[in-house]
Amino acid sequence: MGEKPNVTSAITARIDRRTLLLATCATAVSSVLAAGRVSAGGVISDRAAAALAEPAPLTPTPQFEKAFADIVGNALLVEDGLTLELPEEAENGNIVPYRIGAESPMTADDHIARIHLFSTQNPQARVATFHFTPLSGQAAVQGRMRLAKTQEVIAVAVTSANMHLVARRIVHVGIGGCGEG
Amino acid sequence: MAPSKPRVRLPESAAAGEIIEIRALITHVMETGNRTDAEGLRVPRNIIHTVTAHFEGELVFKAELSSGISANPFLAFHMKVPGPGELRVAWHDDDGGITIERYTLNVV
Questions:
Q1: Which pLDDT score is estimated for A175?
Q2: Which of A117, A143, A178 sits opposite B73 (nearest CB)?
Q3: Which of B32, B66, B76 sits opposite A179 (nearest CB)?
Q4: What is the 3-state secondary structure (H, E, C) of A130-155?
Q5: Can you tell me the distance from the alpha carbon of A75 to that of A163, in angstroms, rounded to the nearest whole number?
Q6: What is the pTM of this model?
């Protein structure tokens, strides 16, 4: 009889952890939740432990969270006006073509000043920052980036009025390219 | 490795006010700093960290690059042609090397 409370608490702990894991996958606000996950004590089944050991595939790195917060701060993110083109599938993560473009009159008073390109799961979260001027005529850039693994790539454009436009794409990567190992 | 073989492509001529595309490519290893060599020693980072384009001294475009950019970095960007003049593209790498190329744009 004395065991009953223990069983209940173990189940509760398991549900809590699973909920946390799901929440982590769904919201990608990982750092706080991950810390909670690690510090939570109690009995846990092998299956649940295995599930916890596997990181959610699209969970951004803490480095990304910090780099993104450093650029964006508390700014309102407008999910419009910026396009980020990337292949849906990249066989070779060493060379992934990207194209970024923002709608803008590109006048002295109203132009895109910068576009930041982030990877959410590379060793280096900040891939590039591009600066534009009215002389650019068009806020558009293309190039080739490295992707270590399947992940979300995020672009943020900052206007001369300090508005933040954001665009996101998930790229499935065959062979990762970031030169580890 | 110092950057080499810079190549910039832009139209031979353009009209004033026209928006042209400029394509810039350079040969460079873009060593990430994440790799280890055969002896297990870390290969130090060596990348082109900045690319700038100026037209008659005015900034057209600047790119700050990280190790997340592919080897032999390629960039395509634009310029609204203000008139005839010289485009200057510069690539800066971690060794302190700067490769500069100049191109004259004919305005018709």
A1: 86
A2: A143
A3: B32
A4: EEECHHHCCEEEEEEECCCCCEEEEE
A5: 8
A6: 0.79
The three-class DSSP label of residue B68 is coil
Cα–Cα distance measured from residue A141 to residue A34, given in angstroms and rounded to the nearest whole number: 35
Measure in Å the smallest separation between the Cα of B97 and chain A Cα atoms: 20
10 Å Cβ neighbour count for A139? 28
Residues lower than pLDDT 50 in chain A: 1-42, 180-181
Residues 6+ positions from B55 with CB-CB distance below 8 Å: A135, B79, B82, B85, B86, B87, B88, B105
ipTM tops the 0.90 cut: yes
Determine the distance in angstroms separating the CA of B16 from the nearest CA of chain A, rounded to an integer: 12
The distance of A5 to chain B (nearest Cα, Å) reads 50
DSSP output for A27-96: H--HHHHHHHHHH--S---HHHHHHHHSPPTTPPPHHHHHHHHHHHTTPPEE-SSEEEE--SEEEETT-E
Type of residue at A27: T
Query: Which residue in A106, A143, A180 is closest to B35 by CB distance?
Result: A180
Contacts of A161 (CB under 8 A, 6+ apart): A110
CA distance B74 to A82: 21
CB atoms within 10 A of CB B88: 17
* C-alpha to C-alpha distances, A49 to A8, A36, A129, B55, nearest whole angstrom: 18, 15, 40, 59
Amino acid at A73: G
Q: Is residue A53 left, alpha or beta, with left meaning phi > 0 and alpha meaning psi from -120 to 50?
A: alpha
Give me the domains of chain B, ranges plus CATH numbers.
4-107 (2.60.40.10)
